C-alpha cells in the first residue's frame, strides 16, 4: 500500500464501544479496542481519535426535542466516550489528552490545533470530543475536519457490522460485492451510505485518504496500519 501512516485519525463510532448491544459501554470491548490502539501507538504512529456518541444519543433520535438541543446532547455523549477511552488507554500506560469542541474546562482541554500538535509530538494520543461543536454535523465530518486541520495522512474508519464498503448491504444481499478501492465521487454518485455527504465531500475536497474496516475485530486496526489489505481504501482521485 502506498499510504503513509505517520499521523492518523482513528474514527470510532459510539456503537463500537457498546459490544454489539448498540447502547452503553462494554468494558471488554473497550479494552480490546484500546489494546489495538496501543499496538498502533507502539509502532510509533501519531494518533488522533474522534469518537461518536451513538451508543448514548443521536441528534436525529427524537422528534420531540428541537434538533439543535438534541445534537448538543449527542455531542455531550461523545465527551463521555472520550473520557472512557482516555481512562482505559491511560490504564494501559498510554498518555492521552482529551480536547473538546464544547468547553468543559473541568474535565478536558478546549480544541486548540497547535496544542494538539504539541501533544502528538510529545507522544500523547489526542482524543477529540464534542464533534465539531456545531449541531447538524456528524462525528464522521469531525474526523474529516480534524484530519484536514491536523494534516493527518489518513482516516481509519472503524465500522461495526461490516468489514468495508459494499455495492449493496451485505447483510441483506448475498451477491453484494466488496470494493477494494473507491473514490469519494463514486461514493457520492452511487449513494453509498458509508459516511454522510458532508463528511464525504470534505474528505474529497481535501484529498484525505480513508480506510474503512471492520472494528468488530479490533485487531484489524493494526493490520490496516501494517499495510495489509483490510477493508476498503477511498481516495480523492
Ligand atoms: N453531533 C453534532 N455535531 C457534530 C458531531 C456530532 O451535533 O459535529 C451530534 C449529533 O447529534 C450526532 C451525535 O452528536 O448524532 C453523535 O455523533 P454521531 O452520530 O456522529 O456518532 P456515531 O454514529 O459515530 O456514534
From TrEMBL:
It comes from Parvimonas micra. Transmembrane segments: none annotated. It holds the Pfam family AA_kinase. Belongs to the UMP kinase family. Keywords: Allosteric enzyme, ATP-binding, Cytoplasm, Kinase, Nucleotide-binding, Pyrimidine biosynthesis, Transferase. Residues 6-213 form the Aspartate/glutamate/uridylate kinase domain. Homohexamer. It is found in: Cytoplasm. Allosterically activated by GTP. Inhibited by UTP. It is an enzyme of class 2 (transferase). Its EC number is 2.7.4.22. UMP binds at residues 53, 71, 132-139. This is Uridylate kinase. ATP binds at residues 11-14, 54, 58, 166, 169. Pathway: Pyrimidine metabolism; CTP biosynthesis via de novo pathway; UDP from UMP (UMPK route): step 1/1. Residues 19-24 are annotated as: Involved in allosteric activation by GTP. It catalyses: UMP + ATP = UDP + ADP. GO terms for molecular function: ATP binding; UMP kinase activity. One of its GO terms (cellular component) is cytoplasm. One of its GO terms (biological process) is UDP biosynthetic process. Catalyzes the reversible phosphorylation of UMP to UDP.
